[in-house]
Amino acid sequence: MSGGVDSAVAAARAVDAGHEVVGVHLALSRMPGTLRTGSRGCCTIEDSMDAQRAANLIGIPYYVWDFSERFKLDVVDDFIAEYRAGRTPNPCMRCNEKIKFAALLEKALDLGFDAVVTGHYATIVTSPEGDRELHRASAWAKDQSYVLGVLTAEQLAHSMFPLGATPSKAEVRAEAGERGFTVANKPDSHDICFIPDGDTKGWLGERVGTETGQVLDRDGAVVGSHEGAHAFTVGQRKGLHLGVPAPDGRPRFVLEVRPKDNTVVVGPKEALAIGEIAGSRFTWAGRAPEVGVAPIPCDVQIRAHADPVPAALTLVDGELVVHPETPLDGVAPGQTAVLYSGTRVLGQFTIDRTVSAVPVGAAASA
């Protein structure tokens, strides 16, 4: 129970369904803030108190479990390491993978519980063969199956998502109001919970450090300078402070971050089009598809709120390779690609490399 409306209603519905339910709030910070900053953050003392009030109304036991050390190691430190390596990580994916459906689930099973129930908008379907499959929620506008793409078959066997079939978030809020939950109109959390002020650049600068480096164009010419490559991400346009304008006068975007030599590569928007993504760190959400060197059809989604794109999937030398039917826009190594077959989540992989759909020199003449 995060202290939000979704987990409160999910807990109440689990009780209504006849389950024996215990509310658990995760303490993920050794120094939690007292109050939320608008809709930023989700691990404050205020959130813990909101969760306890909801548990009391439902009539279930309530506990706070301290996973702050595990969260620091598996999520925060990983976030810093990924940026140091020039990649763009997704900490929410890592939290689901390492904390909510690993550390929390492991402890729950050890204590004799059967499943972890959350307020995520996704559904679990049992196939005719008896396999549990992860599917999109009924309302795609609120669908959260992307951030659950890291779940394995074993984790799906011990997971429940009571909100998956709910048509809209408005309906969940209305139900929360009818149940008397004070969080009925509480804003949704967003951004990175451990950077509540939203200043990711400043937060990283304190931990990674700053060092002057060069900004290059696609031909290797120096067009500017910067104070640390970690502050940039692929697709970024603002804050480049380039000293040399593009020959055609058009805006330039970050195309690549090279942490080894502390350089940033910029170019035209067309060069952000990606025709191939690949990665060797992958998992399957349920039964693994029969994928090999012969391509199989799928849909690929590279951000939580992006549209799925039809693609061809292969597995070559231990690396998943995806060729989208239409180029993907502004993909950065470190992002998570979630694979779908219709509404079903097949699995996910961390993007290790990308191949531009526009060769060097082609964008300038386009």
From TrEMBL:
Active site residues according to the UniProt entry: C95, C193
- GO biological process annotation, one example: methylation
> Where is it found, in Gene Ontology cellular component terms?
cytoplasm
Pfam families, alphabetized: tRNA_Me_trans, tRNA_Me_trans_C, tRNA_Me_trans_M
Residues making up the signal peptide according to the UniProt record: none
Q: Which GO terms describe its molecular function?
A: ATP binding; methyltransferase activity; tRNA binding; tRNA-uridine 2-sulfurtransferase activity
Domain (tRNA-specific 2-thiouridylase MnmA-like central): residue spans on this chain: 203-267
Q: Which reaction does it catalyse?
A: S-sulfanyl-L-cysteinyl-[protein] + uridine(34) in tRNA + AH2 + ATP = 2-thiouridine(34) in tRNA + L-cysteinyl-[protein] + A + AMP + diphosphate + H(+)
| Entry's localization field | Cytoplasm
The UniProt keyword set, sorted, is: ATP-binding, Cytoplasm, Disulfide bond, Methyltransferase, Nucleotide-binding, RNA-binding, Transferase, tRNA processing, tRNA-binding
Q: Which InterPro entries match?
A: MnmA-like (IPR004506), MnmA-like_C (IPR046885), MnmA-like_central (IPR046884), MnmA-like_central_sf (IPR023382), Rossmann-like_a/b/a_fold (IPR014729)
> Segment Interaction with tRNA: which positions?
142-144
Q: Where does ATP bind?
A: L26, G119
Enzyme Commission numbers on file: 2.8.1.13
Which positions does the site annotation Interaction with tRNA cover? H120, Q335
- Residues annotated as domain tRNA-specific 2-thiouridylase MnmA-like C-terminal: 277-347
Q: What does this protein do?
A: Catalyzes the 2-thiolation of uridine at the wobble position (U34) of tRNA, leading to the formation of s(2)U34.
Checking NCBIfam families in the record gives:
PRK00143.1, trmU
Family named by the database record? Belongs to the MnmA/TRMU family.
Please give the PANTHER family that the UniProt record associates with this protein. Answer: MITOCHONDRIAL TRNA-SPECIFIC 2-THIOURIDYLASE 1, TRNA 5-METHYLAMINOMETHYL-2-THIOURIDYLATE -METHYLTRANSFERASE
User: Which protein are we looking at?
Assistant: tRNA-specific 2-thiouridylase MnmA
